[in-house]
Write a structure and sequence with these properties.
It is built from 8 helices and 15 strands. The protein is of the alpha+beta class. The chain has a single domain, classed as Double-stranded beta-helix (4-Layer Sandwich). A 7-stranded mixed β-sheet has the order 1-2-3-13-5-15-4, covered by helices on one side. The mean pLDDT is about 95. It binds N-oxalylglycine and manganese (II) ion (MN). The site of manganese (II) ion has 4 residues, from loops.
């Protein structure tokens, strides 16, 4: 049986019915999912009790895996709980215990509660993310998604013209700095988090639709005074995350949610993370192109 897509939020979020992600997919189904991603931007699959290997196999249908590294997190290899080609989006340590309140990794991970687009701090940022919910808390811990095409479309003409050529600088230093975590970073970490450039307006390669490429990692606009850039980006973020652009996913174990980072932002919502368990694992599909020319270091 081939898959079907039922829209949960018209033009933005769909539920995929009839897929079993533990098995290789027929080419037609892969194509239908790909087309669904181009047209919507978030797809939800229920009842997928998959292993890490099955998640990776499914992910590979959509491109190359982007590996987490020391430039994208503070985790050292010896502290990793799961395999190196997946991002650990849990609140757990290697012993499968919730991270303590003052744990450095926990405090860094709180940054996921800021609206962002995955890997916008990389020169070539991520295309898709696939998040598999293995263990979900009894309350809270939703993930929210905002449609950056609808947010762009709703801007007035003057603002569209003003932002057309804007290039931003993105870095983990900016997102973590906004939570006051930057004091806690080592010199080596700070150097690894050097800013990259991203266009503020992106054009989707298939649909041709424009979207606002915002993220908590964006902290400067090239050629602008920083406070003016920050307040301008803050206003745009407020606009882009109004409730009419937002979908909230309430997790059940076995859900897999897949989103297009080129057309959306997302954020985690809080839960009782020092006592409850939330085990989520993310595979990330590498992007295919930079959005802006980078400055070559001297
Ligand atoms: C992510 C992420 C949000 C969440 O996986 O990239 O930001 O709700 N997750 O865990
Ligand atoms: Mn994320």
């Amino acid at each position: 049986m081939s898959i079907q897509i039922r829209e949960l939020m018209p033009g933005f979020v769909g539920e995929v019915i009839g897929a079993d992600l533990s098995k290789p997919l027929a080419q037609d189904d892969v194509l239908a999912i790909d087309q669904g991603m181009d047209r919507l931007a978030v797809l939800v699959f229920h009842g997928q009790n998959i292993t890490d290997e099955q998640q990776l196999e499914f992910s590979l249908n959509f491109g190359a895996i982007e590996r987490p590294d020391r430039k994208s997190n503070i985790t050292q290899d010896k502290d990793r709980r799961i395999r190196a080609d997946m991002a650990d989006i849990s609140n757990l340590n290697k012993e499968h215990q919730p991270l303590g309140r003052n744990d450095r990794q926990r405090l860094f991970n709180l940054g996921n509660q800021l609206w962002h687009s995955d890997s916008s701090f990389r020169a070539t940022p991520a295309k898709y993310s696939l998040l598999s919910g293995r263990i979900c808390p009894s309350q809270g811990g939703n993930t929210e998604f905002a449609d950056m095409r609808a947010a762009y479309d709703a801007l007035d003409l003057q603002t569209k013209e003003k932002i057309e050529e804007i290039v931003c600088e993105h870095s983990l230093l900016f997102s973590r700095g906004s939570l006051g975590f930057d004091d806690d970073l080592t010199e080596e970490e700070k150097q690894g988090f050097a800013p990259v450039r991203q266009s503020l307006v992106r054009v989707h390669p298939k649909s041709g639709r424009k979207s606002l490429y915002l993220s908590a990692h964006a902290g400067r606009i090239v050629g602008w005074p920083t406070p003016e850039a920050r307040i301008f980006l803050r206003d745009l973020n407020e606009h882009a995350t109004q409730s009419q652009f937002v979908y909230a996913h309430k997790w059940r174990a076995g859900d897999l949610v897949m989103w297009d980072n080129r057309q959306t932002m997302h954020r985690a919502r809080p839960f009782e993370d020092t006592s409850e368990v939330r085990d989520m694992r993310r595979t990330t599909i590498a992007g295919e192109a930079m959005t802006a020319r980078q400055v070559v270091a001297a």
